[in-house]
Design brief:
It is a single chain. The chain has 212 residues and is mainly alpha-helical. Helix 5 runs antiparallel to helix 6, helix 5 packs across helix 9 and helix 7 runs antiparallel to helix 8. The protein is flat and about 70 Å long. It starts with a helix and ends in a 5-residue tail after the last helix. The protein contains 10 helices and no strands. The longest helix has 37 residues.
Length: 212
């Protein structure tokens, strides 16, 4: 009787959602936790930069130049014209995080779309996208970014695009390998028998997670 009740309870137990499994994997990955904590600290400092910064961007004090860290309220010291380094770091973190997140998002967005198209359709779409990726990978990422900036012109937005485009080939190759399997799973799990873009994207994203 005890064994039957335990078996019945296991059958009736609600399966864990994909988000709960993802959080469990994240919790087990100590490196990811440390990196996430550092990122949270940086993002918090960038968001509240105007509050925690001790000096304005246009303030300088030449007689107080090159002070060591922790001197006269300067947590990171001062630069060669007496500007507070900590204030400039927390304000500069806004631009750094914006560039980093936007460049990665651009690469992942275009890479995932091209990868799913190449992996799902195969044949000439796959061959065409693969040849374009081969051309992009033939150039160093920095040289390709400089070339894109030269064509688009100076500016922060153009710099983010130039950094995001060279990152797209790696995402494309990852999604290309998973495209056919995600499509087959989506078709098998769909009631209508047709794979939707939403189901393919969801299954592919969960498939690229690291193993437990």
């Amino acid at each position: 009787m005890a064994g039957d009740s335990a078996l019945q309870g296991a059958v009736q137990a609600k399966p864990r959602s994909e988000w709960s499994l993802a959080w469990r994997r994240l919790y087990r990955n100590k490196g990811a936790l440390v990196g996430g904590a550092v990122l949270i600290v940086m993002a918090t400092g960038a968001i509240f930069a105007d509050v925690i910064a001790t000096e304005g961007l246009d303030y300088y004090n030449v007689p107080g130049a090159l002070l060591p860290p922790g001197t006269d309220g300067h947590l990171f010291g001062t630069d060669d014209i007496g500007r507070d380094v900590f204030s400039r770091v927390v304000r500069g973190a806004r631009i750094s995080l914006r560039i980093g997140f936007t460049a990665v998002a651009i690469g992942a967005f275009f890479g995932s779309i091209l990868g799913l198209v190449a992996g799902y359709f195969g044949r000439w779409p796959d061959m065409l996208i693969s040849r374009v990726l081969d051309i992009m990978l033939a150039f160093p990422s920095l040289l390709l970014a400089i070339t894109i900036v030269a064509g688009l012109g100076p500016g922060l937005n153009n710099a983010m695009i130039a950094l995001g485009i060279p990152a797209s080939p790696r995402a494309t190759m990852a999604f290309t390998r998973l495209g056919p399997s995600a499509a087959r799973i989506a078709i098998a799990s769909s009631k209508s028998g047709k794979a939707s873009i939403t189901s393919m994207a969801r299954l592919t994203i969960w498939s690229i997670q690291p193993p437990k």
